[in-house]
Amino acid sequence: KHVLSEDSNEKAAKKRVLPTFPIIPSSRFGTTTAPTLRHPLFIGDFSLDGDRKFHHDRRSLGFISIDWDQSQTKKVEYDLNIAMDKVKRKDYQRCVRENLDNLLMWILLNRYKFAVSPPPPPPPTAPMPSQHSSSQAPQQGGQPHSSSHGDATKSARPNPVRGASVDSLQNPLAASGPITSLSTDFVTYRGLLRDLMCSPYQKEGWIILATKFRRTIYLCGIDSVEKQLEKENETENQKRLCSWGFKFEQFMTDGADPNEGHDENKEYCCVLRSRLASHSLVYGAEVDGADPTRYNPPHGHLTPFVELKTNKEITTKRARQILHKFKFQKWWSQSFLVGIPRVVCGFRDDFGVVRSVQTFAVSAMPNQCQGYWSTDVMINFLDQFLSWVKSQVVEDDPNLVYQLTRQPGSPNVHCQCLGENSSAVAFLPHWYINEVFA
Ligand code: A3P
Ligand code: MG
Ligand code: MG
């Protein structure tokens, strides 16, 4: 009897131990055609200034005028070292500490977009005026929303957080009060989804914190101790390489003066809604700029936007293979996830002088990279991983954190519910929990 009870205890304990999710071999995700990612829908945007302060506007949006003839490589001479002494470097540690705050602030200011208007009464003789103007209609991406309603009697309170712009709370729709649910399965940043998609082909470790609140799972990437140390110990050379990427953005942005020091902390972010199979997603994404000849808001998709990249000049077949095998995989997933159709790459020499600029069509990348990586593997992995996350992150509690960890090179992801230890890393701010939801 004793043995039996031990056995059942063990079984119960095993049940409590959250299972692992295998990442590799990548081939296990390539056996079926991947589901399609619904064309990501633009639902709003915000800017961060040089002090990483949130603004509910487009002040940090840059415009990028380029020659779109994709068969051409344009010769240029952009010295990315200009005014390096005046550069305001990106504070990565600060960025990591921001967690999802800026995206959550945007949701707070736009919560009316997640509430659903009641079914319209049957039209009497003439059509009733709609509750939402066309540019403000809730953008659902096909997801059936709950029939819950914002509490219109509760007046807007001034925003308590970091001096954020409260303009939108003047908007009667924005001020329509708390909602009961976002009606989306996941809220996160695009960068995290990109890193997940690349995981079956990468050895890189990562840590994701997950919290379920009002039926939505929030995913927040954090740095491991090793990663933090790596960043703290970055050499001047590594820092310069990073700054070259941003300096190229300055060269490419209309009206920006490369003789001025560049502020790497400024960001323009779009917020998107999409769906992958059974997963509805809302995510923020920093984007580099828009082509002014195509940019004509309000826009539903990011077709007018451009992703900028730098790479070493390609002089050998091997260098081209590396570009296709590693860089294109990241460029493709990053752009695909937001529906940006073009990547403009500045090819630089060893001294940081861009010698040529070339435009790449994102849709053509997978074919060019056959044999190196497959979109089926990457999308199936993301789909199955998100399903696994749903099976693990079950407790609906804004203060409870689950930690999903991939150790560097590990074939598996582990999930651990942090229980009482959650408070040290809980990342849904009180102002978000209290202001957004009824
Ligand atoms: P490159 O793209 O030329 O590498 P993004 O391309 O995503 O818009 O990022 C702009 C630049 O920021 C990059 O230029 C790179 O220099 C730097 N960067 C992006 N992610 C980084 C990271 N995780 N660590 C360090 N630098 C990064
Ligand atoms: Mg960018
Ligand atoms: Mg870029």
From TrEMBL:
Gene Ontology MF term list: metal ion binding; mRNA 5'-diphosphatase activity; nuclease activity; nucleotide binding; RNA binding
Entry coiled-coil feature ranges: none
Pro residues: compositionally biased ranges: 118-127
Cofactor(s) the protein requires to work: a divalent metal cation
UniProt domain RAI1-like: residue ranges: 181-432
Subcellular location: Nucleus
Glycosyltransferase recorded as keyword: no
One record GO biological process: NAD-cap decapping
Region named Disordered: 118-169
EC numbers, comma separated: 3.6.1.-
Bias kind Low complexity: ranges: 128-150
Keywords in alphabetical order: Hydrolase, Metal-binding, Nuclease, Nucleotide-binding, Nucleus, RNA-binding
Keyword Ligase tagged: no
One cellular-component annotation, GO: cytosol
Function: Decapping enzyme for NAD-capped RNAs: specifically hydrolyzes the nicotinamide adenine dinucleotide (NAD) cap from a subset of RNAs by removing the entire NAD moiety from the 5'-end of an NAD-capped RNA.
Entry similarity comment: Belongs to the DXO/Dom3Z family.
Name listed for the protein in its UniProt record: Decapping nuclease
